[in-house]
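(Protein data)
===
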Amino acid sequence: MDKHYNQGWWTQIKYGIEFNTAIDPDSISVESIYITDSSDQKLNSITLYPISNNKKIKVINQEPYIPDASYELHVASNLEGLNGKHLKTHVTIPFSIK
């Protein structure tokens, strides 16, 4: 996770998600990979960047996070590999901004 700090606010945190197999680019969307806030509301400012032949995805929130807030990064089971297989389970990774 890369962090950049500007004038007392977190301006950007980039997550990188690496997969064992290439992901079908048609299944990469804000419905399959997203971030929610502590009220379980999806952030609308997420951009996804597939890299490394779709085996990695950068997840970037284009808006600043709120300090002392909690968030969750979600990778939904509807994400599909080029081999036609979906993820077995929905993965949720909690994180907070300090």
Observations:
- The chain is about 0% helix and 45% strand.
- The chain has one domain: 2-96.
- The longest strand covers residues 9-18.
- The mean pLDDT is 87.
